[in-house]
Specification:
Largest sheet: 4 strands, parallel
Strand order of the largest sheet: 1-2-3-4
Number of strands: 4
Strand content: 15-25%
Structural class: alpha/beta
Distance between the termini: 21 Å
Radius of gyration: 14 Å
Shape: globular
């Protein structure tokens, strides 16, 4: 389930998360780029994070800002199952950082497959 626009609010979105989980949807896609969506999603999933898969995105050209975006999501969700380099912005540096997080077991999978042939994750 995507969170762009729908979760970019201070309004409680737990009912939406409830319906998604009840319907069998457990993958939630979000990004710091979506305003408040990550924070709102974290609140909506409180107490049931173990039932979900989080897909998040890095979307900055700055390596240090990319690290902060990742740290932000990790603070909210504890771990991120799928991390993506959004819009391929500074993908070499962002991919290296995400590979490090994967090595630390904070990220399960990285989506950047088209970036480097033969490096399917």
């Amino acid at each position: 389930m995507g969170t762009w626009q729908t979760f970019d609010t201070a309004t409680d979105r737990s009912p939406i998360a409830d319906e998604a989980l009840a319907a069998g949807m457990n993958l939630f896609d979000s990004s710091l780029m979506y305003g408040r969506a990550e924070e709102t999603l974290a609140v909506a999933l409180k107490g049931r994070r173990d039932q979900t898969i989080i897909a998040a995105k890095i979307w900055t050209s700055s390596s240090s800002e990319g690290r902060e975006q990742a740290n932000h999501a990790l603070r909210l969700f504890g771990r991120v199952e799928i991390y993506q380099v959004h819009n391929l912005v500074n993908w070499p540096a962002q991919l290296r950082m995400l590979e490090q997080l994967k090595g630390e077991r904070k990220v399960d999978a990285i989506r950047g497959d088209a970036l480097r042939p033969g490096r399917i994750r």
